[in-house]
Amino acid sequence: YPCHHTRETQLSEFNLTEIEAVLGSYTKVLFVRDPFHRLISTFMQGMGSSPSFSSFVQDVLDSGPRNASMAWKPLVSICQPCLVQYDYVVMFGFLRQELGYLLQRAGLPVDNLLPEFTDSQVQWTYGWLSEQMFSELSLQQKQQLSRFYRWDLAAFPFSSSFLAD
């Protein structure tokens, strides 16, 4: 959208007509990841100051969805999938296949542009790690996390998520 488009311009700075024009002029791709895996990744990267995963999760729950860090904030509140008509939703674990498809749809050479991804190769690690980390949580924390991410779990197919039960 050429009229106001600069790197610094936030979508919220446009009026509704301009927002519709901007969003209509782009191919919109949303990248999603199991919210529990996002929590594990954030904790493992040391982005929380908690000594244990359980205390980190409690800090997340205490912050609430509105005050949550972008690293663990529910995706639905960040990306607004009910308001924005995304053309593609790409799930972590399938990046190579799905990005290959997107490049092909755009008429670009897939082999030359697509880097090697390890997301599908680390899925088994996240399965094991999820099991270990989930077992550290109290029943109350598990239930609260499921409520915290309920809209993400409803909006995206995270059927194998530990939080989906």
TrEMBL record:
Membrane-topology descriptor: Single-pass type II membrane protein
EC class: transferase
Superkingdom in the source lineage: Eukaryota
Alphabetically ordered keywords of this record: Carbohydrate metabolism, Glycoprotein, Golgi apparatus, Membrane, Signal-anchor, Transferase, Transmembrane, Transmembrane helix
One Pfam family recorded for the sequence: Sulfotransfer_2
InterPro entries for the chain: Carb_sulfotrans_8-10 (IPR018011), Sulfotransferase (IPR005331)
GO MF entry, a single one: sulfotransferase activity
Keyword Lipid biosynthesis attributed: no
UniProt EC number: 2.8.2.-
Cellular-component GO terms for this entry: Golgi membrane
Keyword Lyase: no
PANTHER family tied to this protein: CARBOHYDRATE SULFOTRANSFERASE
Name listed for the protein in its UniProt record: Carbohydrate sulfotransferase
